[in-house]
Design goal:
seven-stranded parallel β-sheet, globular
Length: 259
């Protein structure tokens, strides 16, 4: 059993939906105080209401994680509300599907700003809080798409997710002086609102390609993040953990059929 995380202050960006919501609910269920942030305050408040109804502690805050001033405001709000920042879950991300031939420079910049630039901004903004506390944890939500796999229409998304891993390897060295670790969870296909928008045939097809024969749940990512934020993971930094039901393992469709 992991050392209790009860009472710790946790920021979850992109926490109103999908994987971010799952992460927020897992941490809250274990007694953490969670700052749920998203672009839309009403969406963040809806998640907070669910957490509170289940007996957890959470506060909603609207922020644009691609904007430095907004991110600084998020950290200030968390410090004013909870008195500290123990864990940053840099989860905010978008994945609009568009092939390179149709992809505009603005489309590219939007994804990079939301997925990659935001990771840098949120980590930078939390450093003073980690330094003040003498410790900290950062958990980045990356993806298997980009660092390991590819999929037509997601060149910008894949590049942003691979970029997060390049960032965290150097960040791990720079954050060490603050007794702070940074690691990444790399989800495979997880059932979220966004994935459901791709259609049932896509979901069924992906499930067949996974050795465990099912898509993941948002809680699967939440528990991986919880471990990386734990005391027991204090000597792990600059690392990644793939949570994909074995999706990246088969080298062919025949390998899946032979299971």
């Amino acid at each position: 059993m992991l050392t209790s995380i009860a009472g710790q202050s946790v920021i979850v960006t992109g926490g109103s939906k999908g994987i971010g919501k799952g992460i927020a609910k897992v941490f809250a269920a274990k007694g953490a105080k969670v700052m749920v942030t998203a672009r839309g305050l009403s969406d963040a408040e809806a998640t907070v209401n669910e957490i509170r109804a289940a007996g957890g502690t959470a506060v909603a805050h609207a922020s644009d994680v691609s904007d430095w001033g907004s991110v600084q405001g998020l950290v200030t709000k968390t410090l004013e509300t909870f008195g500290k920042v123990d864990v940053l879950c840099a989860n905010a991300g978008v994945f609009p599907q568009k092939k390179i031939v149709d992809l505009s420079p603005d489309d590219w910049d939007q994804v990079m700003d939301t997925n990659l630039k935001s990771t840098f901004l949120c980590v930078k903004a939390c450093i003073p809080a980690f330094q003040m506390a003498g410790k900290g944890r950062v958990v980045v939500t990356s993806s298997i798409t980009g660092p390991i796999t590819g999929y037509p229409g997601w060149s910008h998304y894949g590049a942003s997710k691979a970029g997060q891993l390049g960032f965290l390897r150097t960040a791990a060295m720079e954050l060490a002086r603050y007794n702070t670790t940074i690691n990444a969870v790399m989800p495979g296909n997880i059932i979220t609102e966004g994935l459901q928008d791709l259609g049932q045939s896509y979901l069924d097809g992906m499930a067949k390609a996974i050795p465990l024969k099912r898509l993941g749940k948002v809680e699967d990512i939440g528990y991986a993040a919880l471990f990386l934020a734990s005391q027991e993971a204090s000597y792990i930094t600059g690392q990644t953990i793939v949570v994909d039901g074995g999706q990246i393992l088969p080298e062919s469709a025949e390998a899946i059929d032979s299971i």
